[in-house]
Write a structure and sequence with these properties.
alpha/beta, Rossmann fold, seven-stranded mixed beta sheet, binds S-adenosylmethionine
């Protein structure tokens, strides 16, 4: 009963109202079991990833593409505050439209759950969530706007140059494709790329994040390879980036 009411509400209500009602519902009923498991799994993935990166002396910032909600962002801060993962300077970057998902650019972006405006959270509310989680304002930078603009080579403003962990949680093929174009010139051997929606597809289209990643690491980019790392949650997958020079004769075998 509850599930069908939920899908009707999702269909009929504007996304920000639906999101607000959903959070209010969870506040009243308590955290649902699914959420608790997913949160725990993501936390555990991040713990492993930052330990690996620290052990291997991989330096650079944390960049999250699709940060609204602030769940993953807060996990990263919590871990960095709790454990001595420090290898070199560390800053957190939050890339988001702060207006929710963009419209689909092509059929491959289409998914019944991913509608324009879904997951919208105002930038101010994101800052409030970060503050409540104890994240100092100077520990992170938000970059507001749609990726076709903010991740374009000519985009103005500060951007991370060295990244140790990139967390891609923007669901759609076109969004992930823009993220990958931004990340390719910033790759470093040993960094980790994580995709929150790697196993998300619909009855008609394949996983947009997977497609965009496969294209980025296709034959025209022979300098880099991907080593499958940790699978997390029900849809997430991560990879370690390797320099092809360092791994002679190997190939991207996972697709
Ligand atoms: C599922 S939410 C992210 C959840 C977040 N990682 C968390 O832990 O709470 C997906 C986000 O991706 C953002 N997004 C997707 N495509 C985008 C694009 N092309 N440009 C900017 N933001 C985008 C949406 O605004 C949305 O906030």
């Amino acid at each position: 009963m509850m599930r069908s009411l939920k899908s009707v509400a999702r269909e009929r209500l504007p996304a920000p109202i639906f999101n607000m009602l959903q959070s209010a519902y969870h506040r009243v009923t308590g955290p649902n079991e699914h959420y608790v498991h997913e949160y725990g799994d993501r936390y555990e993935f991040m713990r492993k990833a930052f330990t690996t990166l620290s052990y291997n002396r991989i330096e650079g910032d944390y960049a999250e593409f699709g940060c609204c909600g602030g769940v993953t962002f807060r996990i990263v801060h919590r871990l960095m505050a709790k454990y001595p993962y420090g290898v070199g300077p560390f800053h957190m970057w939050a890339f988001d439209s702060f207006e929710g998902l963009p419209p689909a650019e092509s059929a491959i972006d289409e998914h019944p759950i991913w509608q324009e405006g879904n997951f919208a959270m105002a930038e101010e509310d994101f800052h409030k969530k970060c503050k409540a989680a104890g994240i100092p304002r100077n520990a992170y930078t938000t970059v507001k706007g749609f990726y076709d603009k903010t991740l374009a080579p000519a985009a103005e403003g500060p951007r991370p140059m060295k990244i140790r962990l990139a967390y891609v949680d923007c669901d759609m093929y076109s969004s992930t494709s823009a993220v990958m174009k931004f990340l390719m010139p910033r790759l470093q051997h040993g960094m980790i790329l994580a995709f929150d929606d790697y196993y998300c597809w619909s009855s008609e289209v394949p996983s947009g994040e997977r497609m965009a990643l496969a294209e980025a690491f296709g034959p025209e980019n022979p300098d880099w390879r991907l080593l499958p790392y940790v699978q997390f949650g029900w849809a997430g997958m991560s990879f370690v980036v390797e320099s092809a020079k360092a791994v002679n004769g190997s190939h991207n075998a996972h697709w």
